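Problem 12. The chain below contains 753 residues. Write out its predicted structure in token notation.
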Amino acid sequence: MKKILSATVVICLIFASCKNSKDGNAEMDRFIDDLMSKMTLEEKIGQLNLPTIGFDITGPVLSKDVEQKIEEGLTGGVFNTFTPQAMLKLQEIAITKTRLKIPLLFGYDVIHGHKTIFPIPLGLSASWDTALIRSTARAAALEASADGLNWVFSPMVDIARDPRWGRVSEGAGEDAFLGSAVARAMVEGYQDGCLRKNTSVMACVKHFALYGAAEAGRDYNTVDMSEVKMYNEYLPPYKAAIDAGVGSLMASFNTVNGIPATCNTRLLTDLLRRQWNFKGVVVSDYTAIAELENHGLGNRQEVSALSINAGTDMDMVSEYYLTQLPALVREGKVKESVIDIACRRILEAKYKLGLFDDPYRGVSQERADKEIMSADKLALSKEAAIKSMVLLKNNGVLPLSKDKKILFTGPLADDHRNLIGNWSGAGDSKKSVSLWEALLKERTYMYAKGCNLTDDKTLIDKLNPHDGQIVPDDKTPQELLQEAVKMARSADVVVAVLGEPFGMGGEAASRSNIGLLENQKTLLAELKKTGKPIVLVLMNSRPLTLEWEDKNMDAILETWYSGTMAGEAIKDVLFGNAEPEGRLTITFPRNTGQIPIYYSYLNTGRPDDENQKYTSKYLDCPNTPLYPFGYGLSYTQFEISPVTLSDTTLAENGSLEATVTLTNKGTRRGTETVQLYIRDLTGSISRPVKELKGFEKVTLEPNESRQITFTVTPEILKFYNASLQYTVEQGDFNIYIGNSSATENKTAFTYKP
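Solution.
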């Protein structure tokens, strides 16, 4: 193996590479110019090839003969391979056996932690704590880089407003402002300001673009929307990640304006490269170039030409570039200069990662043992889990008293695998702490399983061939139910831990109905008949329809899939050792008929009016959601004063201050997320009824008050008009400050340039 450079040399190289200077770019350009002058066409195309080898795949294809292709210089990187042993072996081939000794990229889906698993991204976003989110990405980068990786396919920043889509679990919810803040935090956490550091990994923002708006909530499906909606509501988080310096971007599976993103020149070249000035690598999603044939875009040669010419630099798994591009160049259907540009971008990424100086990036088993699942990361996992939990309902039964006789029931009360959720990658569920294990560390409680995760054999047969791990209990469903009901009658309080099997969320896991599964509903209905107070603890990857549960349960705690330390965190929240700080970042509908549902909708010419027939409403359901965006309860009570403004007129280069007083009116210390919303009342196009423009988390002692002030400038009033000009227009605005998007605590001001 190549000798690792001394610490002094590495530090000097890091400094030289990370300084933002023309000299640094010039050095890189000279190095790559020299390298590419020695490369054959086939070797350049080889850099565009990203096969999978190793432990985990997300599609039907596993690449063949990868080691041989590495040796022949026909591979730019691999993914789904990690551990020091595996990385060092493959990198050794690239460095010692290839003609030009170009190192490999090693990529993996590190979505919410590498081996220490944090809450799913939707749960993390519910913390509204960007510093915490940045810390989880930094911890994931430390583990991943120690485990042989230098590239992570995260963050996913797709705006998602249809909870039927399984991949809502991977993003930050429905709002562009909050989603942008989360995107920046995650990129900063992964890359840490300098890719050359051995502890950094190159982030990959995905999926570009609009993937979260797939029709009918069905994965991989078509997306069709106006450009005004696209620019104002869906594109901002991608742009935020790019502005934060993200090193790579993944094209999405879906069509945009009828053209699949993978070969969409308007997206990948006109918008991404020319308007946004993105300089990094664009990689396809898994076999997406091959799938262009199913979209009806042509044969292998045709879709390969379309993709490379549109701006997709790297082909993940399909190997169409490897097999088709040489002939396409010879036939003049693809210019070699196009291949050169794509190859250069990949080589630049490797240069910025320091791979040409140290292809092994200081990886060793000793380093991995030190970093992976260290005590500080486990503590962070628990903190993140606590701060992500959302208290949806509480009639006073929470926090629990240890003096009470408590029955814990439900198939997820003593479960490990589901705690780390979907997209948990290298996470080991056996090392997670279940709620029951955490409880038993202090004392013994009553326990009955109550039901299986599901009794639906058709569903089990769909999930288990894909690692669903649903194993029905040896007892019959009726025996499980009767045991739980019998024990509930002798309990003071019942805690039912229910939710989705992890396989019902994530990729290729769309649902047409998003309520609790029928056997779980039956358990709750029978427990309700006992007359005992019931706390429903949810573990799930998406909003659920919970109208019956909201009416009949005494408390509902949303814990998502909370990660490695889920059990300890849930226990602390249930018993009041910690506060449920989370606030929803995605709307919970009453029923699936309301979907898509989100807070920042456009008003109509006939807004909802129950006293008028011909207005925009349902006959059988209110328009309002069950739980709105931004919503969450505390174990204490907060009061927010009316909004006061420093001025009622905002000038072109001016600002005004909007202030409220937040008071803790309860008897416990607590944390509230104060949220600022704005409504443009007189736009040149129809504008949303509310848009999030600021937020602040505040912790107060009982009876403590604090003034919260937001600064309003013309910049936060800007939007894309019908001509796609980013502008602010003269007119009247409402400003709202409250603790959810449902707030009506408002005042008004006028913008006069």
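Discussion. The first strand starts at residue 49 and ends at 50. Students who got a different answer should revisit the alignment rule from Section 12.3.
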